[in-house]
C-alpha cells in the first residue's frame, strides 16, 4: 500500500565534528602548544574544539580598516543527503577579534562558555520533557505530539496561515550566544565606519548564522546543478576553485585564506535554500484505502517541516510492499551574488545583464538515502527567476509603488540582450514567463519587456533559438483567490516544459541534459512566481515518476503535503532573503487552498515589508555590499551622511562619461566651437544661488568660447536644460571651501568639500534653454532632478514666452530665454568626492607604488584645474585683458564659498534633529 512520509534529513546531531581537515591560520586564534593539543588535551578556553562543535571551520575574515574579525561556524545542521553525501545549513557563527591574542582568547572563552551553558540547559530540559512523556506511557497521544514538537502547538496554525514553522533558536529571538560588540578603544580610520562597526558585526552574525540561509557541503558541490558539472582537472582541486562563482557568497571575506594558500580553510557558502523530503510510491497501488494508513499519513504531518526526525531504515521498510519504492525529493535554490540585495534597493538589471533576485532552483528526484543505489537514475529539473531585465526603480514608501523606467530604450535593450545571451549559453533555450498585471501600474514595464523580447527575436539571425514569451496576468486570471487557475498557464506551457525535459544522471554520469529553462518573474519574483514554479515542478515530477513506472494519478491515497510544504519552505526562504518576510500566498502553496485567513496573513506581510523597506533595509543592504566586496569601508561614511545606499553595480564613471558625450552632441550648436573638456559637478537646484537645500549633479562643458551648465535627467539620459555663458562675460572665478551640510563628519571636511563660483555679466549671447520634452512632463510627475515645483513652473513659463528654438545643430527641441537683468549672475559648482565606496578596479589601482597605477585627483586639485582652464580661455576671449601684466590679468581668487562656521550657523535645529532621528531608526 502506498505511503507518504515527512521523513527529511534535517535532524542530525550537531555535536560530531564534520570530516573537515584541521588547519592552523595565522589570522585566527593562535593554536595551542603541541602538548596541549596532543598530550594533555585541549585547553577548554583556547578553541572551539573544547566543546565539540566545529574546530577551525571558518567562513572568512571581516575587515574594517585595520580591525579584523574571524567568522567561524559554531553550529550547523544537516538538511539533506545528495548522492549519499550530507549537506549542512549554518545555524550559528562566532566573531573573534584578531587585533590581539588576548582579545581573541577572551572572545573564544566567552563563546565557549555560553555554548556549553546553553547546551547543558537544552539537554536537561529535553531529558525532563522526554522522561515525563515516557512516564505517562504515551498517554498524551496526539496532543503530546504537537506540544512537544520543536515548534510547539502553534505550528499547524502557522502552516495553515502560510508561514514556515520556525524553531526560534540562536539569534533571531535573542536566545543565541549573547555577544556584545563594542568599538575598539584605539579606533582610527573613518569615524563613521568605526561607529557603525558594532551594528555591522551584529548584522554579519545574524546574516551568516541566525538567518539559516547559508548552506555548505564538504564532499559535494551544491553550487552547480546536475546539468552544469565541472570536472576537476586534478583530483585534489580545492573546493573553492570548483564551485560556481555566481553562487560563492563568502568569496570576498575568505580571500585572505585563499591568498595565503590555506585552501583547507576556504569553505564556500551558498545562500538560498536546501530542503529534502522522503516519500513512498507503489507501482501497482491498491484502489481501496486503508483507514489505518490514513491515520499514519495524518500523523506524519505533525512533524516540523524543517526538523522532522527520519525513521530508522529497518522500520521504514518493514511493512513496505514489494511494488513500493522510496524516493527523495530535494530542492536546491541558489541565490546569485550578482546584483544581490534587498527588495526595493536592488531592482531590475545592471549594465552587464545581471538582474536582481536572481535564483536558480533545482528539483532533484533520487532514490531515498536509506536505499541509495549509485546505479539508479537521478532526475534534475532546473528553472530560474529574476527581476525584469530592464532598468527601473520603485519607491519603498508605498504598498504598491509605480515602477519608474530608467535610461533610453537602446540602453535597456542592450542590457536585456546581454541577460538573455547569458541564459542561452547556460541553459539552452529560454521561455520567459511574465506574471504581472496587463493593466494598472505594472502594465508599462510589462509592455516594454514584451516589446524588447520581440525586438531581440527580430534581430536574431536565422536558425537561432527565439526566446519564448508568455504574459500571464496572474491577478486577473486568479481573481477571487482562485489560484487553482494557474493550471491554465500549465496547459499553455506544458508542451514546452516537456520538450525541455530533465537532466538524468546514472552513477554520477550525465546521460541526458535539460534542453531549456523557464525564466519566471512577477514584480518581486517572490509570491506569484513561487506559486507558478511549484506547479511547473510538480508537472515535471509526475513525468519523471511516470517514466519509472509510477503513476501519481493512480495513487488514490497519495497526499502531496511533502511536496507542497517543501516548495512553500523554499518560497519562504527566498522571500525572507529578498523582502525580509515569508512569502505571500504561502497558504495556497502548502495546502492548495486559499481562504480569508491567508489573505489577512498576506496583508500583515505587506505591512511588514513596507516597514522593512522604509527603515531596516538600508543598512542591511550596505552590509551585504560590503561583505560581498562590492564596496569599501567608505560605504558607512556615505550611509551616515544620507542614511541611504547607492547601487555599486551602476558604473557612475561610465554614466558620467556618457552624459558628457551626450550633452556635447546635444547642446553645442555652433560647429565652429572647439570642445575643450567636460566635467560632472554638483550645483544648486535653483540657478544663480550658492546656498541651497540640496544639490544636483550636472554636466559642465567648456569650449573655446563658452561655458555650458547642463542639468541632466539621469533617469532618462536626457538634457533637461542648459545655461550658456560666453567666456568674454566671465568676470571672476572664486574657489575654496564649500560646505553645504554639517550633519556628518564627511560633510564638514574642508579638504573634501570644495568648489568654485563663476561670476559673469549677462549679455545677448548668454541664454538658458529648456528641453521641450521636460516641459511636457513637468506637471503630474515628480521631478527626479531639479528645483522646486514653483521654480519649474517659472522656467516653463519663461521658456514658453521666449524666442523659438534655434534650428540646426544640437539644440533643436529646446525653448530659449535670455536673462532679464544686467546684474551679475553666478554659477556655483561643488566637486564630487574623488574617493567613493564603490570597489571598482580604478579604486583598487590607486596605489602609487604599483606599475600602471591610476592616480586620482583630489577634490581641490579638480577645482583648481577647472578654474585654471576656464580662466585661460576667458582671458583669451576678453580683449580688455590683452597686453596686461600676468599678475593683473587674473580672474581667479581663493576664498571660502561657504565656510564651516557659516554652514553650522545656517544649519537649523530641525535639520540636526531630523538626521539624529533617522540615524537612531536607520542605524
UniProtKB/TrEMBL annotation:
Top-rank lineage group of the source organism: Eukaryota
A GO biological process held by the record: phosphatidylinositol dephosphorylation
Record-annotated SAC domain positions: 210-580
InterPro entries xref list: hSac2, Inositol_phosphatase, SAC_dom
Pfam families named in the record: hSac2, Syja_N
Biased composition (Low complexity): 1-15
One Gene Ontology term, aspect cellular component: endoplasmic reticulum
Entry's Gene Ontology molecular function annotations: phosphatidylinositol-4-phosphate phosphatase activity
Biased composition (Polar residues): 771-782
Stretches the record annotates as Disordered: 1-44, 302-322, 771-804
Stretches with biased composition (Basic and acidic residues): 786-796
Stretches assigned to the HSac2 domain: 650-812
Protein name stated in the entry: SacI domain-containing protein
Annotated organism of origin: Staphylotrichum longicolle
Amino acid at each position: 500500500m502506498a505511503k507518504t512520509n515527512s521523513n527529511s534529513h534535517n535532524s542530525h546531531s550537531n555535536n560530531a565534528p564534520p570530516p573537515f581537515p584541521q588547519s592552523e591560520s595565522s589570522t585566527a586564534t593562535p593554536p595551542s602548544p603541541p602538548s596541549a593539543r596532543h598530550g594533555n588535551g585541549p585547553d577548554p578556553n583556547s578553541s572551539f574544539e573544547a566543546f565539540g562543535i566545529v574546530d577551525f571551520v571558518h567562513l572568512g575574515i571581516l575587515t574594517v580598516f585595520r580591525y579584523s574579525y574571524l567568522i567561524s561556524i559554531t553550529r550547523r545542521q544537516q538538511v539533506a543527503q545528495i548522492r549519499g553525501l550530507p549537506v549542512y545549513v549554518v545555524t550559528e557563527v562566532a566573531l573573534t577579534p584578531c587585533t590581539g591574542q588576548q582579545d581573541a582568547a577572551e572572545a573564544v572563552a566567552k563563546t565557549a562558555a555560553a555554548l556549553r551553558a546553553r547546551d547543558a540547559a537544552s539537554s536537561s530540559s529535553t531529558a525532563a520533557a522526554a522522561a515525563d512523556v515516557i512516564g505517562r506511557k504515551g498517554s498524551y497521544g496526539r496532543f503530546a505530539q504537537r506540544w512537544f514538537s520543536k515548534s510547539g502547538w502553534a505550528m499547524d496554525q502557522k502552516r495553515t496561515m502560510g508561514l514556515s514553522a520556525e524553531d526560534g533558536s540562536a539569534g533571531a529571538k535573542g536566545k543565541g550566544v549573547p555577544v556584545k560588540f563594542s568599538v575598539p578603544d584605539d579606533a582610527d580610520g573613518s569615524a563613521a565606519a568605526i561607529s557603525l562597526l558594532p551594528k555591522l558585526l551584529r548584522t554579519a552574525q545574524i546574516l551568516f548564522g541566525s538567518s539559516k540561509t547559508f548552506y555548505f557541503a564538504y564532499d559535494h558541490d551544491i553550487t552547480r546543478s546536475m546539468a552544469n558539472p565541472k570536472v576537476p582537472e586534478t583530483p585534489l582541486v580545492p573546493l573553492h576553485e570548483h564551485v560556481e562563482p555566481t553562487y560563492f557568497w563568502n568569496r570576498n571575506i575568505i580571500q585572505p585564506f585563499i591568498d595565503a594558500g590555506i585552501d583547507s580553510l576556504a569553505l564556500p557558502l551558498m545562500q538560498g535554500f536546501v530542503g529534502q523530503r522522503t516519500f513512498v510510491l507503489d507501482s501497482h497501488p491498491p484502489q481501496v484505502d486503508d483507514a489505518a494508513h490514513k491515520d499514519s499519513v495524518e500523523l506524519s504531518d505533525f512533524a516540523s517541516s524543517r526538523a522532522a526526525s527520519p525513521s530508522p531504515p529497518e522500520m521504514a521498510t518493514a511493512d513496505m510492499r514489494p511494488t513500493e519504492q522510496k524516493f527523495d525529493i530535494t530542492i536546491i535554490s541558489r541565490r546569485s551574488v550578482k546584483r544581490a540585495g534587498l527588495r526595493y534597493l536592488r531592482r531590475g538589471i545592471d549594465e552587464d545583464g545581471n538582474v536582481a533576485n536572481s535564483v536558480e532552483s533545482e528539483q532533484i528526484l533520487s532514490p531515498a538515502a536509506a536505499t541509495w543505489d549509485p546505479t539508479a537514475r537521478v532526475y534534475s529539473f532546473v528553472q530560474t527567476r529574476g527581476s525584469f531585465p530592464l532598468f527601473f526603480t520603485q519607491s519603498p514608501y508605498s504598498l504598491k509603488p509605480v515602477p519608474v523606467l530608467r535610461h533610453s530604450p537602446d540602453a535597456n535593450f542592450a542590457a536585456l540582450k546581454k541577460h538573455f545571451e547569458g541564459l542561452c549559453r547556460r541553459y539552452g533555450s529560454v521561455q520567459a514567463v511574465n506574471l504581472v498585471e496587463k493593466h494598472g501600474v505594472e502594465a508599462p514595464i510589462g509592455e516594454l519587456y514584451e516589446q524588447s523580447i520581440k525586438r531581440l527575436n527580430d534581430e536574431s539571425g536565422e536558425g537561432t533559438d527565439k526566446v519564448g514569451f508568455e504574459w500571464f496576468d496572474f491577478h486577473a486570471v486568479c481573481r477571487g483567490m482562485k489560484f487553482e487557475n494557474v493550471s491554465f498557464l500549465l496547459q499553455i506551457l506544458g508542451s514546452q516544459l516537456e520538450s525541455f525535459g530533465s537532466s538524468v544522471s546514472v552513477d554520477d554520469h550525465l546521460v541526458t541534459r535539460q534542453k531549456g529553462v523557464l525564466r519566471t518573474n512577477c514584480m518581486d519574483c517572490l509570491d506569484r512566481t513561487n506559486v507558478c514554479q511549484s506547479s511547473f515542478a510538480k508537472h515535471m515530477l509526475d513525468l519523471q515518476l511516470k517514466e519509472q513506472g509510477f503513476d501519481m494519478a493512480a495513487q488514490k491515497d497519495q497526499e502531496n503535503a511533502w511536496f507542497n510544504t517543501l516548495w512553500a519552505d523554499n518560497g519562504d526562504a527566498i522571500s525572507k532573503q529578498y523582502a525580509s518576510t515569508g512569502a505571500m500566498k504561502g497558504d495556497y502553496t502548502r495546502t492548495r487552498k486559499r481562504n480569508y485567513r491567508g489573505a489577512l496573513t498576506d496583508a500583515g506581510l505587506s505591512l511588514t515589508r513596507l516597514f522593512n523597506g522604509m527603515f531596516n533595509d538600508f543598512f542591511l543592504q550596505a552590509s551585504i555590499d560590503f561583505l560581498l566586496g562590492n564596496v569599501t569601508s567608505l560605504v558607512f561614511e556615505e550611509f551616515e551622511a544620507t542614511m541611504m545606499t547607492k547601487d555599486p553595480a551602476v558604473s557612475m564613471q561610465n554614466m558620467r562619461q556618457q552624459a558628457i558625450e551626450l550633452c556635447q552632441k546635444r547642446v553645442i550648436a555652433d560647429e565652429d566651437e572647439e570642445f575643450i573638456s567636460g566635467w560632472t559637478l554638483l550645483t544648486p537646484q535653483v540657478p544663480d544661488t550658492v546656498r541651497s537645500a540640496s544639490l544636483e549633479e550636472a554636466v559642465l562643458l567648456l569650449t573655446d568660447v563658452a561655458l555650458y551648465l547642463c542639468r541632466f535627467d539621469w533617469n532618462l539620459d536626457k538634457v533637461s536644460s542648459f545655461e550658456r555663458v560666453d567666456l568674454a562675460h566671465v568676470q571672476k572665478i572664486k574657489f575654496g571651501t564649500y560646505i553645504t551640510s554639517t550633519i556628518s563628519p564627511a560633510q564638514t571636511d574642508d579638504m573634501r568639500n570644495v568648489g568654485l563660483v563663476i561670476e559673469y555679466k549677462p549679455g545677448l549671447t548668454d541664454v538658458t534653454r529648456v528641453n521641450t520634452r521636460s516641459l511636457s512632463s513637468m506637471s503630474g510627475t515628480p521631478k527626479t532632478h531639479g528645483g522646486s515645483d514653483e521654480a519649474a513652473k517659472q522656467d516653463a513659463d519663461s521658456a514658453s514666452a521666449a524666442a523659438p528654438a534655434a534650428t540646426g545643430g544640437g539644440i533643436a527641441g529646446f525653448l530659449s530665454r535670455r536673462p532679464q537683468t544686467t546684474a551679475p549672475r553666478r554659477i556655483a559648482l561643488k566637486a564630487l568626492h574623488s574617493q567613493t565606496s564603490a570597489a571598482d578596479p580604478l579604486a583598487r589601482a590607486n596605489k602609487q607604488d604599483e606599475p600602471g597605477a591610476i592616480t586620482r585627483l583630489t577634490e581641490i586639485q579638480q577645482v583648481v584645474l577647472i578654474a585654471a582652464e576656464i580662466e585661460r580661455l576667458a582671458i583669451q576671449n576678453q580683449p580688455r585683458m590683452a597686453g596686461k601684466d600676468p599678475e593683473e590679468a587674473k580672474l581667479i581668487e581663493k576664498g571660502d564659498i561657504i565656510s564651516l562656521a557659516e554652514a553650522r550657523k545656517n544649519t537649523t535645529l530641525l535639520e540636526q534633529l531630523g538626521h539624529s532621528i533617522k540615524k537612531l531608526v536607520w542605524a
